[in-house]
Amino acid sequence: MLYSGGGKRKWYQLDSRGLSNLIVVCVGILLYQGLTHFTQVRNAVQGVVDVFAPFIVGFVIAYLLNTPVDFFEEKVYARFRAKRVFSILTVYVLALMIITILLQMILPQVADSIRQLFSNLSVYLGNLSQMVQDLISRFHLEGEGLTNLVESYNELIQNFTSADIVKRATEFLSTSASELWSLGMSVGNGVISGVVTVLTAMIASIYMLAGKPRLLKQVKKLIYAIFPAGRVDRILTVSSNANRIFVGFINGKILDSAIIGVLCFLLSSILKIPYAILVSVVVGVTNVIPFFGPIIGAVPCVMILIMVDFWAALRFGVMVIILQQFDGNILGPKILGNSTGLSALWVLVAIVVGGGLFGFPGMLLGVPTFAVFYSLLREWTDARLRRMGIDETGKPLDKDGILTGAGEQKL
């Protein structure tokens, strides 16, 4: 291969194909080393994440508040010169007011419900044991296995007496004083570190929202500097589509979960279900997880309510099923629309895979992430078929891109 200057290529000089192959080999080696030393890589990544944690949290806060900030900037303060500043101040004041009101209204009642639940736990367990024995005698279910189960259950109830709990707590405190002191110091340091992280994140989020136009320009300049001009438009289009999917899904799920939580509390109050505020908070929080959320929240609530009142637990179970159907068929589609473009099967796959790999965050963000990859794969497939002379339904195209046949089934 000759260069424009007429000289021959040196043995140590690579053409574009050789350079691409070298990059692929290096990436493969790095991937192999990362997989074989996964623990070390994870610890290193965790250390980096811990350092940047305030800014990551700040970005999350700014990302969640960006939509209402844009609304106030465009609709309320459009005529003001400092409309961005007024919009940010308004949104943060409203957010702090909402959080304060919710904490004052919900948190004390949740704490009181938990306190009452634990204080009456032995009574509830005794009532549940009596109900189990009544069912066994009424339906003639006596058997060695059930008898042993009831005896073990009675022993568990006896171990939950207040005197036994106090005795064990005293023994634990006397034998673990030094460990508790170390634990207390660690918790105190963690609380201080958490407060610093939250304050830093809040300040960072304000700066991010205030400097959003400038940050976007800087990111675009960086993209233009790194990638060829022909690919920049494609990168910006994909990024805009991904942002649209994530914003629509996350904001929609938060609003949807808040409505479901309020409805659960109202219906629980009407149906006289014990600990209505506690079970409603659990259902509302877990509802942010698509598909499995209501089930995940309902299972522990039903287990708690069975100890308190079996028929209340039954009413609650039926109510949650009705709420789940209402959310899945009416409320959810009305709020979320087709923001992800995924069918129920792919939503299920995204939740299971995301939850298996990354836990709760994976279950929450797996759906919009999978939706982005799904849209990219669909676009690539359609473009590939068009280059092959086939449209997305599987019908052949002529040289002008016009259908030449009909009657084929859609792929």
Layout of helices and strands, plus pairs?
Elements: H1 16-36, H2 38-51, H3 53-76, H4 83-119, H5 121-138, H6 144-159, H7 162-175, H8 177-210, H9 212-226, H10 229-270, H11 276-286, H12 293-308, H13 310-336, H14 344-387
Helix pairs in contact: 3-4, 3-8, 5-6, 10-11, 10-13, 10-14, 11-12, 12-13
Written overview of the protein:
By secondary structure, the chain is mainly α. Among the domains are: 38 residues; 65 residues. The chain contains 14 helices and no strands. Helix 3 runs parallel beside helix 8, helix 5 runs antiparallel to helix 6 and helix 10 runs antiparallel to helix 13. The two termini are 45 Å apart.
Short description:
With 411 residues, the chain is mainly alpha-helical.
